[in-house]
Backbone:
């Protein structure tokens, strides 16, 4: 709660933020509905609705009144830590919201919309030349965007973009972690690729009825502590989590795959995001930074923790296998713990990021981080991207990319102008691994508890140490406070080595 | 389309109306979601979202700029009939939207919200005394509302309220139709009540699985021509239709009843509303009166036509029975056409309006019309309402009301301040009957076509003669244009007599 001494200017500031957040939450519902239940013929008008709500939200976020109120509040140098944290982050948001000229925002919206169409065609035809001129335009506009945001002292243009998704993080800091991570992961993946010992992977092809998978998924959500009274699980083409409003966090998953494991991990991943959203203090601080997530990387740490550190663990499967066998009966009859645990931890270099396993995934990300940084700086020309991609892919994952569809055309991010976004995926894995070590130190019997299906202490730990703070601390500070040291590659590498070495005999 | 000579003021006027309608459509989605998929814990924030969207919509509908633009456009005396119709109705809407002082709107919102709570408790306890003081307040405020709208020349206070739901209609005009209707319906219902010949009603208690009923309902929607590419069918506690946006008309129904007939007719009723919404020219005139429904009575005529004139007809069942038997197998094995047709036309006086049959329903409505008119005029005191209700009920339906729960406390409308709303239900039945005669004259083989499941000519007729016009004509004018005469009680009475006399041997 806010301290009683909060000045009227601060109360007005909170009210303005609350209204903007409420409008924004309406936009989130429009977006959720569009992916779930909206009739196809409604799409043209849905764009009008979204455009109008986005305009109204933007007006509220950029009103000069916020600037005036911020200046008044900051001048008072409030000692209340809640107020200080909110003001710091509100200032940041106001800066980002007001820094881009309207003409650039409109140009970016229009160009990225057309670039997405070009990308779709280019990917389908595996023809980079069709996308290249659009990527050129998007990168030029993205560079202008970075210049408007402003480059930090001693930083580079890329930092200004990264900051949007991972506040306060710089490319140089990421390099310091990614470089050792890459070397050690590449070595591990190479050893695994050469190993003759493989987990039995036949379970990856087991098709189960959708209703049975959904019921199993709901059981898992309940065990994780996801509150279905304040949320839902639906199906969409692409799974997502929308923590749209107080008491309203909606997850989606998809079941149309060959394996029941992929949907399960999709559900657990989104539920990890969902637990973060449900754990934020939205009832008391709606619209304020104190009720918002720290960063994309921190958010991803929550989804990856439940997906990989819980969901691909042996204790989890000791509990979940009988449950799964019952729901999916008779599909898993005779399957033992070793078999399901092995299948859940299959590692094999492949071309497509979104299909990659826990170990190789990060190599896909580091490749993208390196190349997009070079694209923005101008060190890499657009036309040289495919060759650079393929060469780096061979270096990192040991495979020859057969075509651009399975190479530099596979992701839509760059067509959207999302530069600086990719590294947050691996930052999420790194945060998760480092938190996981601390969690196991704080809850020494966590494995035993998970074996019994008791995930309550884990959820409570995450609620207390991460979710409850909102944006009070930046990610690096939160990591330092929780784990006592800065983010490092060691915990993730150790986790993967410890788990995968026995499975693959390496 | 608008004539090329449309002045800039008119274009601006259309733009303002389009934006207001788009915002309003967002509110409709919030409302739909609230009844269908919203998690329970989201309800407090949903009220904030709805409040904010309602405020923004109201601001747009009452901006003085609309008044200026209307004056400019009206002064130009446009000859284009589209423009003239839009201006006439936009003027009406602006008048209604700006006529109530903000203080009265707020007072009404607050009082009716509390009155609804009081009504709920009073109904549950069947204790009118708990509701009486609230009804007193609501009626006083509603009277003030009517005074703000203004009484038409030679009219009464009630007309100002009725006009909100049935533009241009007066209580005196309704009386001229309702009085003969009541006499003749009461006589018919009394004869039926005394008859020893009854249709076999055992089908009214057949419970069918929800999935089978839903699949059957979707088949019926498809046959009716409801476009599921531009709409949906979901389940809610109370069925409704929301024609929320271009390409987006959502129906709901409910299956938790003892009979499969009630959900079927619920679905057909809402789909009748839905066909009207889908038939309005929303793509070309979104936000303009030309793309909106004429009145509540006209809207109800569309739902009642499909529910009663189609759905309770013998030709419909000749086609639908085999379909139903297949979907609900083996529930309807051995049921013949006479049996299902009889069950669908069961007539029996009962206490609750929403459970009433096609014939007695209108008697429930006429009672409410009479009493609410007396309440508003002050001729009937609040405390005398229960006695007046029970006496009138005995007169109209021949039954002694056992308690107020099954009497004057059964409907929520008055707690909402909805006075002048009830008669539109029976106006809907009257319009439907009068249109139905004309439709059968225009499509002489309609019965044959329905027997074959071919409802396309009926839908096309409704599209052309009613839906396509939007609010170009008021209801009375539309009725005159289509049927060549003013609205009358005869078609409805003839329809019921012709159908029910042979079934009941009266």
Residues:
């Amino acid at each position: 709660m806010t301290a009683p001494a909060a000045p009227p200017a601060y109360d007005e500031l909170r009210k303005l933020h609350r209204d903007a957040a409420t409008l924004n939450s309406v936009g989130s519902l429009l977006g959720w509905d569009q992916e779930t239940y909206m009739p196809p013929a409604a799409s043209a008008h849905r764009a009008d609705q979204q455009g109008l709500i986005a305009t109204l939200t933007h007006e509220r976020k950029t009103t000069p009144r916020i600037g005036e109120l911020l200046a008044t509040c900051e001048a008072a140098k409030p000692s209340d830590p809640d107020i200080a944290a909110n003001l710091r982050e509100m200032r940041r948001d106001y800066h980002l919201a007001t820094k881009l000229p309207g003409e650039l925002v409109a140009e970016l919206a229009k160009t990225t919309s057309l670039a997405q169409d070009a990308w779709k065609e280019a990917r389908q035809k595996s023809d980079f030349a069709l996308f290249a001129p659009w990527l050129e335009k998007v990168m030029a506009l993205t560079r202008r965007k970075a210049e408007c945001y402003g480059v930090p002292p001693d930083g580079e243009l890329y930092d200004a973009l990264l900051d949007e998704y991972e506040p306060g993080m710089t490319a140089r800091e990421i390099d310091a972690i990614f470089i050792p991570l890459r070397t050690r992961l590449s070595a591990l993946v190479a050893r695994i690729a050469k190993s003759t010992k493989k987990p039995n992977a036949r379970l990856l092809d087991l098709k189960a009825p959708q209703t049975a998978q959904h019921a199993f998924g709901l059981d898992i959500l309940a065990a994780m502590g996801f509150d279905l009274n304040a949320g839902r699980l639906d199906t969409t083409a692409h799974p997502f989590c929308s923590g749209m409003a107080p008491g309203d966090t909606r997850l989606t998953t998809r079941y149309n795959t060959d394996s029941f494991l992929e949907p399960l991990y999709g559900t657990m991943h989104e539920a990890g995001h969902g637990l973060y959203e449900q754990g934020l203090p939205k009832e008391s601080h709606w619209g304020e930074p104190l009720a918002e997530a720290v960063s994309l990387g921190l958010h991803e740490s929550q989804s990856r923790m439940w997906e990989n550190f819980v969901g691909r663990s042996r204790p989890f499967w000791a509990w979940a296998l009988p449950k799964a066998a019952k729901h999916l009966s008779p599909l898993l009859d005779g399957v033992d713990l070793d078999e399901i645990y092995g299948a859940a931890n299959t590692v094999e270099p492949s071309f497509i990021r979104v299909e990659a396993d826990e170990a190789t995934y990060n190599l896909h990300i580091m490749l993208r981080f390196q190349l997009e940084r070079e694209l923005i700086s101008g060190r890499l020309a657009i036309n040289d991207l495919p060759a650079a991609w393929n060469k780096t892919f061979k270096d990192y994952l040991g495979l020859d990319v057969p075509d651009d569809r399975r190479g530099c055309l596979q992701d839509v991010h760059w067509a959207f102008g999302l530069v600086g976004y990719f590294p947050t995926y691996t930052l999420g894995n790194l945060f998760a691994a480092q938190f996981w070590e601390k969690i196991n130190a704080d809850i020494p019997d966590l494995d035993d508890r998970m074996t019994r299906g008791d995930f309550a202490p884990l959820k409570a730990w995450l609620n207390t140490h991460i979710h409850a703070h909102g944006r009070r601390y930046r990610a690096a500070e939160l990591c330092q406070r929780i784990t006592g040291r800065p983010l490092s590659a060691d915990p993730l590498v150790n986790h993967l080595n410890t788990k995968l070495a026995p499975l693959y005999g390496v």
Summary: The domain at 134-506 of chain B is CATH 1.10.1370.30 (Neurolysin; domain 3).
